[in-house]
Prior knowledge:
Blueprint: H1 3-15, H2 17-25, H3 30-46, H4 52-64, H5 78-88, H6 95-101, H7 112-115, E1 120-125, H8 132-142, E2 146-150, H9 153-165, E3 170-173, E4 178-179, E5 190-194, E6 204-209, H10 221-230, E7 233-240, H11 245-255, E8 259-263, E9 270-272, E10 287-290, H12 294-306, E11 311-314, H13 320-331, E12 339-342, E13 356-359, E14 363-367, E15 373-377, H14 380-387, E16 400-404, H15 407-418, E17 427-429, H16 433-442, H17 448-458, E18 465-467, H18 471-479, H19 487-494, H20 503-517, H21 524-531, H22 541-561, H23 571-590, H24 592-603, H25 619-630, H26 648-658, H27 663-667, H28 674-680, H29 686-701, H30 709-724
Parallel strand pairs: 1-7, 1-8, 2-5, 2-6, 3-5, 6-7, 9-16, 10-12, 10-13, 11-12, 13-16, 17-18
Antiparallel strand pairs: 3-4, 14-15
Amino acid sequence: LSAGEVLKNLNKFYKRKEIQRLGAENGLDARLFHQAFISFRKYIMESSSVSADLHIILNDICCGAGKVCLLGHVDDLFPFFLRHAKQIFPMLDCMDDLRKISDLRLPPNWYPDARAIQRKIIFHAGPTNSGKTYHAIQRFLSAKSGIYCGPLKLLAHEIFQKSNDANVPCDLVTGEERVYANEDARQAPHIACTIEMCSTNTPYEVAVIDEIQMIRDPARGWAWTRALLGLCAEEIHVCGEAAAIDLVTELMYTTGEEVEVRNYKRLTPLTVLDYALESLDNLQPGDCIVCFSKNDIYSVSRQIEARGLECAVIYGSLPPGTKLEQAKKFNDPDDPCKILVATDAIGMGLNLCIKRIIFNSIVKPTINEKGEKEIDSITTSQALQIAGRAGRYGSSFKQGEVTTMHRDDLMQLKEILSEPVPPVKAAGLHPTPEQIEMFAYHLPDATLSNLIDIFVSLSQVDGLYFVCNIDDFKFLADMIQHIPLNLRSRYVFCTAPLNRKEPFVCTMLLKFARQFSRNEPLTFDWLCRHTKWPLAAPKNIKELVHLEAVHDVFDLYLWLSYRFLDMFPDAVLVRDIQKNLDDIIQVGVCNITKLIRASQSAAAPDTAAVVSEDFPLSRTKRDTRLVSDRHGAKSTEALSIAVEVPGERRAKNLKAYRSAPRQEDLKSHGRGSLANRLLREGLLTQEMLRQLESEWQDQRRNGRYGVGSKRDDQNSSKEMGKKKK
Length: 725
């Protein structure tokens, strides 16, 4: 057979609309059809021989091409193509079964207990600091039984304490912790839990679902969908932004349940100021500077304390106990700490007495629905959530204020805050362990990561839902794929709550899985040996970051201990040392500026004085960092040295660090000079200044300024002499 003729007819076969339609009917969507054809074509073109029946068909097609009476047609290749496709995609043989398993179009039917009762849905809608959650909690406390579902451990812990303080026995249930109100460990009629831990089988009189707008969250939205559709309670009190009202109403329409909406207004006024802060010299007691990166947290706190002011620090990776202590320090009227530097972690879960919110930046790195990192302006919802923390009802500040650090950001912030919050359009879903197990039954040779991929590609959802991002799940599945585990255990390990950007935590999960697969219990001694416990107080930022990672490892152990009690037997001991570690981290955070100085000294002793109160984090430098981050590179912000950038990248950052203007260089120029002002604003570096001076001198020597330049230079020299005197 002529290879050219065969290739031409194979490509003709691929382009036939009828063949593509037949492929779709047999489970081959456009992507699978293309991959199957590439493989099929390669098989034919590169094989030394093919089966006799396929050879006959190819011969008939090639010989009959162009003749009036065709011996064969390219469509005759389809049975051979389909047979080949089923060899490389085994799921095609059981496609109908797999489609039924991955059909996600009727999530309400997954919860028969909830569908068996008529539930009353009450939506408490309003902005931050409007009392919406307070009214829902009052109904929770007055009920015979109830469950509170919140997005954070801090929120669940707050309701747990409030309930027991009000003599309403309440248990605390989070992924890592169980605290019983009764000494005999009997379950109390009330439960405060993180939303992923709520039970859809236990009946309650009242359920409270907090922050319902997070039902749209690309990673965790499924937990709110599950709680809303599945909680078996007579009354469901939903709290959150008004933007979620329409979606909740539509979802409840599919269950035959009506929604009662109660709207709330903010209890204290919130004012957007007409001026930016511009300088840290303008800070006032009760101010909170909001940053969106750790490096900015370190930089700003260092500059504040250089001015003789004390500040509290709160960011996402801090343990809950440390966050509470820092909040307590900031709120205490007798404590000299009157300034707070924080990330958007303050948006929920902490009660803070803030007078003024100052956005250090209005751009934030985010993860989109595809799991890709993007850097964009904060959304209206995020801006309102953070700004709303100012002027909390019942605090010493009767009204809140909000502004920006930089003048150029203020107008954009006003625009963001004035825009309506876009409505929440869809609710998240996630495949259950049972669904994945049924997939594995049909595809026993597929890896867990492949099973998830196939499930998502085949899943069908209607317009009210979307499938949540599963990149973290797949990352862990690939990481532990080589470890022999049964499917259910493997699934549990892959749903463990950890930050995959923390190498130490990921390494410890790998060790946990390997030890588990050997059926060897992970004892307290084993954990201490692998985490090098006991640990000393941190001497620099790098050590503080490591302590935070160790705290996450202890959290991971506790989380797994509630799923595999016999294999993780020492949860009580681990919880004790975690509390000790929390205290050590608190000491480190209280001395964070000392740690920053130590980090700078260790990284570049000759450049320790680079960042000072005369050199604040500039807008230009911040924008440069964002461009770098957009391309996946580490920040070149000076303070990242010896903090998060090890090895070869440290040299790169040192170069950027040393190019920054030094204190003595700044002093060589008058404080009010243009050069000094440009240096302080970050628009000019010392290296650029030297280069400009060199170019200017070269131009003078070459006579680039024409006749009279020499006289002008002499006049300039006299002027310089007068200034010196």
